[in-house]
Amino acid sequence: MRILLIKEHALTGSLATNQRLIPALVAMGHRVIPVDVGALATLFGHDGAQQLVVQHARAFQPHLALVFPPHDMLAPETCTALRDLGVPLVGWRETDAHHLQKMAQRPAAQRRFLALDGTKFTLNATTSRCAYEAMVELGLPSAAYLRLAGHLPVTGLAPLLPEVEIGFVGSPHIGDEDQDTAGRRGALTQILQKGLKLQVWGADWDQVPDLATAWQGRVTDELLTGLYHYTQINLNVEGWARSPVTPRMLDIAFSGGFQLIDACPELADYFEPGLESISVDSPTDLLSKIAYYRVYPEARFAVLAAAKARAERDHTWAARWPELLAALDTRWGKALAEDGSPDFVDVAAADGVLTAYRAMLHVSEAAERMEEAFGYAEAILGVAPHDYGALAARARWAEMVGDAEVAQRHWQMAGARFSAFTYPWAKPADLLGCLGTGRIVPGDPHAEAIWHQFNLTLALQDMDAMRALLPEMAIVDFDALESFAGGLFRNEEFELAAQIYGQLLYEAPAKLDVQLGLARSLLCLQRPDEARPLLEAILGIEPGHAEAKLLRSSTLT
User: Fold this and answer.
1) Of the given ranges (2-16, 247-261, 418-432, 538-552), which has the lowest mean pLDDT?
2) In sequence order, which residues have a C-beta less than 8 Å from that of residue 365 and are 6 or more positions away?
3) CA-to-CA distance for 150 and 225, rounded, in angstroms?
4) Lateral strand order in the sheet of 278-280
């Protein structure tokens, strides 16, 4: 199935939701086409970004569009255009419960926004029971209660951090001074004041004076699995009123970590209370249960093992996806067509999308947002596998993260402007023909790729790859390759020097310096019969060439 995924930071690989959602859908055999409307709007404006969403649908002909979360990312006319193309829209929200609680004190007219917004989507799914009930009350027939899903962690569990007694990962929500976030900070402060070993990870905790000493800095998504696993007691407290049913809850369970979690109506829909989950309903209750589970680790182990087994059985995306399709089927009114390959793309319709992504790639690299640039490069290559700019960007990303072998391979692909079938390195005569047809010309941008590949090949000391590169290098930069051959000769690497001089001689058979360099190398390799004709050819052009005379005489003795 082809799925148009519309979300913020959709092309950023390190975002935790992308590490769960996109790999899970791909593992299930779907093709995911990510679209970041907000990022596109920064370059193309609101209207341009909306048009590009529709252009994606025309190019990839998705079976459905998943908007996750759907807050104000699509204009009504965009949704109408998608439905006219036969694409049902699924809006899936995580934060409705908290948002509705804040809206409850406002006039009914202001609360109608949810119903109005909901008309844009074929299916309005929410992870909150109270949000679902509010949608029904507002007369929204597309409403559905759909539980959150997670993905089995792919990162290792090596304890890269020391074992933690009590840990919290999240944000203090600086500037959001509602009662929920104040409750979270107050509960964590009480734990610290009790002399317990609390450690806190996330941004901005240094701005909370009472908790600054517990702050450990930010933690990368790659380390979260291990951190949750090796923390004795993970705190999943959202502030007693805000729903704790967030991706963090499932992440901890999948990681095999023990957690104390705020009580909420939805919790029992995921884990059996007391056996698979331990909830708390106040700061006092939290302190009491921390004290108990510190003393009885076997009780922690029983709960975390049961929670992990339940998550792996019931709460993966593979388990949730049929539920989503069933809910969509009742609202869409017809079965989703799964015609064609999951990799289908209408290349003619993809031109606008490719133009936009190439622009976003350049902007991202210029702003040094390399991970974002990598995401756009991947999106381009999904449509145009031989796109030079995208291949070069992927190679630069690999160099930045220190993976020279991957960088070498991608520079090789970037440098090979044509497929191996029409660019046969094993047939030098065909390569010379390329010069006549204009397939490779000096100054071509692919020369940059070949040079990068050559330098990485040298660093990796990959002699086989270097030999394969010689025909390309001779065309891209003859003089530089000749200087390199001379350096190899001076370093007494005569075999490789002879190979390079041989390739250069093939490209320029009358160049005396190349003939002489090859002859010198062959003599050092004890191959005088091969060197003699070269020296005689030099003397045929320049009879007084002193060095050629001396070397030829040495071949006759």
Assistant:
1) 418-432
2) 373, 393, 396
3) 13
4) 198-201, 164-169, 231-236, 259-262, 278-280
Element of type H or E holding 361: helix 351-366
- Most confident segment among 173-182, 348-357, 434-443: 348-357
Would you say 189 and 219 are in contact if contact means Cβ atoms under 8 Å apart?
Answer: no
Cα dihedral 325, 331, 335, 338 sign = negative
What whole-number distance in Å separates Cα of residue 466 and Cα of residue 476? Answer: 14
Long-range contacts of 56-59 (CB under 8 A, 24+ apart): 56/4, 56/353, 57/4, 57/81, 57/82, 57/85, 57/87, 58/85, 58/346, 58/349, 59/345, 59/346, 59/349, 59/350, 59/352, 59/353, 59/383
Whole-number average pLDDT of the chain:
80
In the block, tokens 């704790």 appear at: 244
425: pLDDT strictly greater than 60: no
Dist CA 59 CA 385 (whole Å) = 16
Q: Tell whether the model's pLDDT for residue 341 goes beyond 70.
A: no
N- to C-terminal Cα distance for the chain? 76
What is the C-alpha to C-alpha distance for residues 71 and 381, in angstroms, rounded to an integer? 29
Query: How would you list the strands of the sheet with 143-145, edge to edge?
Result: 31-35, 2-6, 64-67, 89-93, 123-126, 143-145
Per the DSSP assignment, residues forming a β-bridge with 143 are: 124
DSSP structure class, residue 213: G
Residue 194, classified by CB atoms within 10 Å of its CB into exposed (0-12), middle (13-18) or buried (19+), is exposed
Instruction: Report residue 497 CA to chain centroid gap.
Output: 42
pLDDT at residue 482, rounded to an integer: 79
- Dmax of the chain from CA atoms? 108
Give residues with Cβ within 8 angstroms of 126, minimum separation 6. Answer: 92, 93, 96, 132, 135, 143, 144, 145, 146
Q: Which value, in Å, is the radius of gyration of the alpha carbons in the chain?
A: 32
Q: How many CB atoms lie within 10 A of CB 288?
A: 12
**Per-residue confidence (pLDDT) for residue 420, from 0 to 100:** 33
- On the CB side of 227, how many CA atoms lie within 13 Å of its CA? 21
Cis peptide bond prior to 107, omega within 30° of 0: no
Answer for the pair 113, 95: CB distance below 8 angstroms, yes or no: no
